[in-house]
Every structure is written in C-alpha cells, then in structure tokens.
Design a protein that fits this description.
Helix content is about 40%, strand content about 5%. By secondary structure, it is mostly helical. A two-stranded antiparallel sheet has the order 1-2. A hairpin with a 7-residue loop joins strand 1 and strand 2. About 5% of the residues are buried.
C-alpha cells in the first residue's frame, strides 16, 4: 500500500539487509481480510473451496474500510502445525526493534501525534 503505515514500514526497513517488502502477503492472515483490495471473491473462489459455503468474506465492507496493513512477522517453520516454531533472534530481538522504528516513523509522519 501507499498509506502512512506502509510508508513508515518502508522507511524503517530501508536499512535492513535481510528483510524486504513485498506488495502482498503470500499466506493467509486476518489482515488479509480487513485490507481487502484484491479480486472479486468469485475470482479467488477456485482457490478457496469453502468460500460461500462454510464462510463468507465481507469484501465490500473491507474495501470500504480502506485500511493500511503491514505484516512484520514473526516467521519460522511449520506454521499451524504440531511442531510450529519461530526464529527466536528475529521474534525477540529484531522484530521489537523494528516495531519501535515503524511506530516512531508513524509518529513523525503524524507530526509527533502518535
């Protein structure tokens, strides 16, 4: 996105050599639903067999919100599996510092009103 949160994250990540920005999240996250700007639900229904039968996506409501969403982590292996684990160095050292930088940039962009 190009909203204030996305800009703040891009600025905070500018000095990161091992972390980059992609314009989409390649997995599923709750944020995917609240920041819907994508294709019509019919287009993605082929990839989501339960859509329309077991659950519904309020895509038009989400589009109306027009939220700026950024996912910064944590990351690891075997997400949602019995042996799920996170990269501890990233989750407990780099990520907190990154969040602090992103929030500070948001505050600067808001004129000091965070």
């Amino acid at each position: 996105g190009d909203g204030p949160l996305s800009r703040a994250a891009a600025e905070a990540l500018a000095d990161e050599r091992r972390t980059g920005i992609v314009p989409y999240y390649p997995l599923v996250s709750d944020a995917c639903y609240v920041a819907w700007r994508g294709d019509a639900p019919e287009t993605i229904a082929a990839h989501m067999p339960a859509l329309g039968r077991e659950y519904a996506l309020p895509t038009e409501d989400a589009r109306a919100l027009d939220l700026d969403v950024v996912s910064l982590g944590p990351w690891g292996h075997d997400a949602h599996a019995p042996w799920e684990r996170v990269n501890t160095e990233y989750a407990f050292e780099r990520l907190p510092a990154l969040l602090e930088r992103v929030l500070a940039r948001c505050g600067e962009q808001a004129g000091g009103r965070a």
